[in-house]
Amino acid sequence: MRPNWYSLREFESLRALLATGTTSAAARRLGISQSVVSRAVASLEARLGQALFARQGNRLEPTAEAFALNENLDPLFDALARIDGTGGEDASGQRLTLAAPPTLAHRFLQARIAEFLTARPDAAVSLEICASDALAAGIAEARFELGVTDSRVDHSGVATRPFRRSRGMAVIPAGHALADRARLIPADLDGQALIALTRRHSARGQTDRMLAQAGAVPRIVVETATVVSAWQFAAAGLGIALLNPFPAALSEDARVVLRPIDPALTYTTQFLTPARRPISALARAFMRHVRLATPRDPYSEIATE
Predict the structure, then answer these.
(1) Which residue among 54, 152, 186, 200 is buried most deeply as judged by most CB within 10 Å?
(2) Span 181-194, average pLDDT
(3) Is the pLDDT of residue 59 over 80?
């Protein structure tokens, strides 16, 4: 009878090999011999009856089964890390390389990072602020370990983990003729001054399609690259902006009113991680902190994966 008793060493070897690509590098990472890594992975493959790696030159290319198994191992290593550090991956002394577009970086992540580092003074964070398309490329190339964005990401090298969903809102200057409406429809925007995001934003395409289907032709007075600047232009009275209210609406602003628009524009704020590398204990801890520490607001809700 084939034994089905898995060992922690087998799982550690799998994760180290996924992270490094070679048995020699995985061995150095774990502080064991190369032959121990090879035997552990071979033993795991035998138990599963599946190939987890295919050799490509000097590197071992993970199979889809290896990625799926690694994903399921995250809760196990999280639990081990909480048991006095025994057997788990130690997050102390590590640096998390994090990236996000400007609105999420300034209006949301800065406070979460400060909270996280206050609780973990032995850790460090490097925050890169960049456009969402550059963010996805940086994650896929493993230049960033963790990203946060509300843009749609369709990249084979990037895994997405939703954590917040929200409904788009019309940000209307206080005193505007449409500010008294309980909700708007696209026809209400026909001929109105509109503040739009630039066309590289996935949200811009969603807005344009909604308006085109309704035959509404607003007058675009400003195109801008960030949600924060679009909000500020609306607050200055230049026009209406259709935006994701999370996290921009976490701070009150008496200069504008927010109204839903039908049909609904929906947004998902999500974590991005490299699809072909395991997630470090520090990154998992930060994601867990963000999920728990995000304040409640009337415009968004928790998203499950």
Answers:
(1) 186
(2) 97
(3) no
3-state secondary structure of 273: strand
Q: How confident is the model at residue 74 (pLDDT cuts 50, 70, 90)?
A: confident
Whether residue 162 contacts residue 272, with contact meaning beta carbons closer than 8 Å, is answered with no
Main-chain dihedrals φ then ψ at residue 149, nearest 5 degrees: -155, 160
pLDDT exceeds 80 at position 229: yes
Q: Write out the two tokens for 156.
A: 């084979």
Helices 281-293 and 64-82 pack at an angle, to 10 degrees, of 70
**Antiparallel, parallel or unpaired: β 158-167 and 300-302:** antiparallel
Cis peptide before 247 (omega within 30 of 0): yes
CA pseudo-torsion sign 295, 298, 302, 303: negative
Round to whole Å and give the CA distance between 197 and 296. Answer: 26
Half-sphere exposure of 134 (CA within 13 A, CB side): 9
Distance CA 194, CA 112 (A): 32
Gyration radius of the chain over CA positions: 23
3-state helix, strand, coil in the chain (%, to 5): 40, 25, 35
Kindly report the average pLDDT of the chain as a whole number: 87
Quick check: 109 and 148 in contact, CB under 8 A? yes
Helices (H) and strands (E) in the chain, counts: 10, 13
Q: Which residues, other chains included, contact 247 with Cβ-Cβ below 8 Å and sequence gap of 6+?
A: 103, 104, 107, 108, 269, 297
For residue 214, which of 232, 198, 231, 192 has the smallest C-alpha distance? 192
